[in-house]
Amino acid sequence: MSTLAESQRILPGPTLAEMVAEKILGKILADRMSPGDPLPSARELGEEFGVSRTVIREAVSSLVARGVIETRSGVGLRVGSVSTALVSDALSLFLRINNGGLDYRQVHEVRHLLELEVVRLACERATDTDLEEIRRAHERMLAGLASPEKVAELDVDFHRQLAVATHNPLYVVVLDSLHGVLVEARRGAVLSPNRGKHAADLHQRVLDAVLRRDGEAAVAAMGSHLDDVAAHWAKMQEARTDGSTELSRAATD
């Protein structure tokens, strides 16, 4: 039960620099400015918002860190091109740090919801070039089966190429944010060459269906693949509590 002092505690509000940063961002959006468009100088912004240049510098620095503004020597302030990597990196850090450790069950729920739709859309929207990139991603995984560490990255890349083929960048952003977590899950599962080959076989079923543009078969193949990964992860977690012998056995199942 909270005390009176706790209930009356005043939470700190945004600083002046933070408020000015939001005003600058609002100006960019209201004026429908595009990446590369010039912005007023720091002096002009200070005059417009009625604040000191120190406050403007702090506000601009925060927007530069977020990719909203770019500073170029001799050119001045420009509207930045916000990279999807910034979004993905932020979400990835949240998943890996603020989530109290990796819980693949939660990741699996999101993947199942996301990737079944991704593979269905890939069947509908993929260009011939997209299909070739997906096929090449699968071939790279086959070529790297001897290295479990390498396979973890190549496995995730196959799924990313499917997301690219949807031509919806939001799918790519979300999957990219899961990249570090998924690779960590692969490594944490002590991915053996046998498991790598098994994953590649499941990828082959997905690939065959996508190349035929058979959405129903692709969704079924992806669902089986994701369920298999989740089941193996659960087995590995259970084996870790039973000692190294069980862990070694589970890694090759």
Automatic annotation (TrEMBL):
Could you give a GO molecular-function term held by this entry?
Answer: DNA-binding transcription factor activity
Regions that span the bilayer = none
What are the record keywords, sorted?
Answer: DNA-binding, Transcription, Transcription regulation
**What SUPFAM superfamilies does the record tag this protein with?**
GntR ligand-binding domain-like, Winged helix' DNA-binding domain
Q: Could you tell me which residue ranges the HTH gntR-type domain spans?
A: 14-82
Coiled-coil blocks: none
Report the protein name in the record: FadR family transcriptional regulator
Can you name the source organism? Georgenia yuyongxinii
